[in-house]
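Here's what a typical entry looks like (Proton-coupled folate transporter):
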Amino acid sequence: MRVAELHNTTKKILSDCTENNATNIDQIVADEVSQWTLYLNLSMFLPACVASILITSWSDKVGRKVTMSISLSGMLLHSILLAIIVKLHLPIPWLLVSNFAAGLGGYYMALLMQGTAYLSDITLEEKRGFRFAILEASMGVGGGVAGICSGYWIEAQGFFNPVLSTMIINISSLLLVPLLLNPQKIKIDPKFLFISLKTVTKSKCEHGGGWYVGRIWRLWFYILSYDLMMYVTVGCMVFQTIYFLSKPLCFTPVLVGAQLAVKFSVLALSPVLIVVMQKILKMSAHFIILVGLLALSGFCFVMSFAHVLHDPLVFIVFKICFLFDYKNYFSHAKISSLASKYEQGAVFAVVSCTEILMFLVATLSFLTLYPATLSIYHGFMWLYGAGVALIPCVLILVVSIADKRRDRLTVEIGET
């Protein structure tokens, strides 16, 4: 919006999907928006990448509540600076400062991983998948409702009041942290007080040799599969709005908003579906993750033909895909189960760091490849995402086969 104002144009001019709408000013604004989006992402996620691994691993020493307060404080500082920028109409470069402040606290990804590690501390292993599903579904639904409501709020009153409400919510979250349950304290060697990426990786690989052979490579397979899932999910997310608004689909903003509402409303049903799959269908965690990955790949494949589908069919595809959007929860649960109680913070620090890296890589690659491949095929990036989503399927399948073989050998040894 601010970039458009600098060029004396309006969002109406930029959003019309007509035959002769392509102008020089549109291209200039679009290019500048892309550049500033990249700069803002880098200013936030580069410091967040380092901060998340330090803060999350430090939580093994000082406790989850302390480090969650640090991340929330960074987000609170971000909202305060953003409110000042909006109120005083400061130039766009000031947004880099506010984003950098959020990144210093690890931002949303670090907070999510600390919450996941906290749940691992206070829940039994067999219940973690469902607990993680409730955690992420709550955040997803809350984010969806906030996004939809803030859109109308911004339209009616501008940006300041929504930003002010974000600041109030962050303050409320900080006040709620001391009320959380205190997990059982674990004694950690003082040398892990300020743990680096190298130390985290080393400790994660060395601590776990006591359970069974092959635990470490299984852990890395799950982390890699989770990172590839995030790569596809984030990549599709960053370009799908452009895909829907541009030709040949030409969705209206109302349809895009409705699609977002469908996404987050269906996400709330994930815990119910998990109960059905675990309690009624008796599906293993491996199989549940595989079904979710195949749903993601199938969703991308079908969306590559969205230009020949009717609008209701596009919404149906979205519903089916996000109904199976529980794979992240069970990936977190499996990663947590493969880490000892001493390693939860260190392992999720690595997951948080790689997740942020995947966010940056996905944003850069998808936004670069999408315009470059339009001349080849309008839905090429969907096909690309469908192909990449099959790689974690192979990784999970390998782990599943190895686990079944190990269990069978264990039974045979026990019988002899």
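DSSP finds 17 helices and no strands in the chain.

More examples are in the samples folder.
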